[in-house]
Each structure stands twice: as C-alpha cells, then as structure tokens.
Amino acid sequence: MLRGISEMHRIAMMMHKDAMTALREKNLQLAGKVIDNMEQLRTVFDGSLKELLKNKMDYNTSKHLLLILRNFRAIGGYAVGLADNATLSIFSKAKEFNGEVYEQLRHKTTA
Predict the structure, then answer these.
(1) In angstroms, rounded to a whole number, what is the distance separating the alpha carbons of residues 86 and 70?
(2) CB neighbours of 94 closer than 8 A, spacing ≥ 6?
(3) Which of 8, 57, 88, 110 could anchor a disulfide with 61, C-beta 3.0 to 4.6 Å?
(4) pLDDT tens digit string along 39-86?
(5) What is the full DSSP assignment across 19-67?
(6) Which of 26-30, 70-74, 96-100, 103-107 has the lowest mean pLDDT?
(7) How many other β-carbons are positioned within 10 Å of the β-carbon of residue 103?
(8) What is the mean pLDDT of the chain?
(9) How confident is the model at residue 100 (pLDDT cuts 50, 70, 90)?
(10) CATH number for the domain running over 2-110
C-alpha cells in the first residue's frame, strides 16, 4: 500500500512540474506527456485501491489512505488541466498568453 502511495506521489509531482514547465515554455510535447501520464496515475490508483480493499485495516486507517490516494489523483488531474491550458496558450493568438504572464510564471516556478 505504501509503495502505491509513494508511486502516486512521484507521478503526480512529476506531472505537476512538467505541466508548469510546459505552460512556462510553451512546450506542446511536454503538455502531451502530462496528459498521457494520467493513465499511469489511474493504473496505480486502481491497483492501490484493490490492495487497500484486500487488507484488513481499521476503518480510520483505510479512510485516510483512500483520501491520500484520491488527493494524489486530484493533483494529477489538476496537472492535466494546466497542460490543457499550456496547449491552448500555444495555439492562441491572445496577447495575454504572451510576455508578462510567462515572465511571472518563470520567476515563481524557478525560485
């Protein structure tokens, strides 16, 4: 179970980092990778959930572990949202997607 949580943590944090990089650098390939990684996160979530249901744990422990799993899955989902925004900004001609916004992102995500 703890291995599944650690793996979800690793994948979700990588997705979030890559999504921010894709947004900052307007990197379509990296944005696509983030979106594709959601399937891997779902697979680990499903396996961890099955393991959780098989183990005989008390209710509170099971509940807390499930909430941790769900939160890492949500982080992955938010990373996909950021990757979607990166994709939209790449193809957008809107002025607000250029310049100052990306400069602010660069300072906040590299600091």
Answers:
(1) 24
(2) none
(3) 57
(4) 999 999 999 999 999 998 899 999 999 999 999 999 999 999 999 999
(5) HHHHHHHT-HHHHHHHHHHHHHHHHHHHHHHHHHHHS---HHHHHHHHH
(6) 96-100
(7) 11
(8) 89
(9) low
(10) 1.20.58.220
Residue pointed to by tokens 């209710």: 59
Q: How many CB atoms lie within 10 A of CB 18?
A: 20
Residue 110: HSE in the Cβ half-sphere, 13 Å Cα cutoff: 10
CB 49 within 8 A of CB 82: no
Q: Where do the domains of the chain lie?
A: 2-110
Sole residue written with tokens 């990306």:
102
pLDDT on residue 86: 92
Both tokens assigned to 101 = 């916004």
CB 35 within 8 A of CB 76: no
Single-letter code of the amino acid located at 5: I
Contact 31, 83 (CB under 8 A): yes
